[in-house]
Specification:
rod-shaped; SH3 type barrels; five-stranded antiparallel beta sheet; alpha+beta
Length: 105
Amino acid sequence: MPPNAAQGASMFSSLLPIILIFVVFYFLLIRPQAKKQKEHQKMLNNLKKGDRVITLSGIYGNVQDIQGNIVKLKISENVNVQILKSAISAVVNENAQNVPVIENK
């Protein structure tokens, strides 16, 4: 083998672990996070009046009105708040099967 060919193969073999690490990070971290973000955005786009939601701060409320990025929530009788649409964590069904569970560690 000519000396240049051996040097090229050595360079490739030294870059191979870095490339493999990037591929593993992509499939284990980047891709699932992008998928989760896309699902959250879809949920926010499908938000409608009357939905029961939970905010990022843990407040439950019913959607009263949506104006662009602002959502008006009714928390209880005579208590309405306006929040950013992005502050909504999840839409909650009446049977509460899709409520996010936070475990204390």
